[in-house]
Specification:
The chain has about 210 residues and is an all-alpha fold. The chain is about 75% helix and about 0% strand. The chain has eight helices and no strands. The longest helix has 25 residues.
């Protein structure tokens, strides 16, 4: 009497068996039912989460200004020889400007003015910390500006888009250009993680030998 060979490790509940195939429609119907329910539950939280992600760097830097108050003040005073008062004013401006701008954006009050204020903070820090001559940090600052562009574009038509920076139908051309520029600048943040080696081909040749 011949017997059917069953591969080792297989079982009746595998997805490749008839029993497993019967489970697929159940999972598909579960996904179809749970998808709208999940979006309906999280819809009111996702826009706030998107804005928080875009301004998280400003929030972290503002908090760091508070905990590193003396170090930041001494650095500015030593670098620019501007005196105690101006150095303290610079740190205070960064702290209040960044935290205040983040609060306004998250609360959706005066978003455009908050974005312009954070643009000013970026420009001020670029000069004060000599970021203009450091390509890596300059690209990161440009990426921060891209995030602000997305927030600024979203604030131009509040309520038409579910996510910050996601395009919607019938929106104006200036907003589309701002969103495109913001996305391009955000890519620079990830480019700072790449390390280019000028001796790549020589290293590859050595490995082949």
């Amino acid at each position: 009497m011949s017997s059917i060979h069953v591969p080792r490790g297989s079982h009746s509940g595998s997805w490749w068996t008839p029993i497993g195939c019967r489970r697929l429609p159940v999972l598909m119907w579960t996904a179809v039912w749970a998808g709208p329910w999940f979006l309906r539950i999280t819809k009111q939280y996702l826009p706030h989460l998107a804005r928080l992600c875009l301004i998280s760097t400003f929030l972290e830097d503002g908090i760091r200004m508070w905990f590193q108050w003396n170090e930041q003040r001494d650095y500015i005073e030593a670098t620019w020889s501007c005196g105690y008062f101006l150095a303290t004013s610079f740190v205070l401006l960064n702290l209040l400007g960044q935290l205040g701008g983040c609060v306004l954006i998250l609360s959706r009050n005066f978003v455009q003015y908050a974005c312009f204020g954070l643009f000013g903070i970026i420009a001020l820090q670029t000069v004060a910390y000599s970021i203009l001559w450091d390509l890596k940090f300059l690209m990161r600052n440009l990426a921060l500006g891209g995030g602000l562009l997305l927030l600024l574009a979203e604030s131009r038509s509040e309520g038409k888009s579910m996510f910050a920076g996601v395009p919607s139908m019938g929106e104006s051309s200036p907003k589309q250009y701002m969103q495109l520029g913001g996305r391009v600048l955000l890519v620079l943040m990830f480019m700072t993680l790449l390390h280019f080696d000028s001796n790549f081909f020589s290293v590859s040749a050595d490995n082949e030998q």
